[in-house]
Amino acid sequence: MTEKNFQAAVQYGSIVLGISVIFNIYVVMHYVEVYRDATRADAKVQQMVVREQAVQGLLQEFAARANTDPQIAEIFKQAQATNSAAAAAAAGNSVQP
Question: Would you put residue 85 in left (φ > 0), alpha (ψ -120 to 50) or beta?
């Protein structure tokens, strides 16, 4: 390595090193943000699953009693209609980009 090449490496090496450090910090921060968003989305999905299981359990209990109580039968029919509409809306939303 000649003296001229060494001086150029010293002069521009710190600039390249600084740009590399800034780029690496940006990449790490970006992936931390993506991971944080994914974690939040996963938590929301888990909450929705728990709620859905609770609702399904309640509806199964209503279904078991629907044959003997006309008021419960009416509530059960309304819940089925609501769930069918929600499922259709969810299926429609998942198809769209």
Answer: alpha
Total of domains in the chain: 1
Query: DSSP letters along 70-88, please?
Result: HHHHHHHHHHHHHHHHHHH
Q: How many CB atoms lie within 10 A of CB 23?
A: 10
Q: Enter the pTM of the model.
A: 0.47
Maximal CA-CA distance, the chain: 97
Q: What is the pLDDT along the chain (97 residues), one digit of tens a residue?
A: 788 888 888 888 889 999 999 999 999 999 999 899 999 999 999 999 999 999 888 878 877 777 788 887 787 788 788 878 777 776 665 444 4
Range(s) of the domain holding residue 49: 3-95
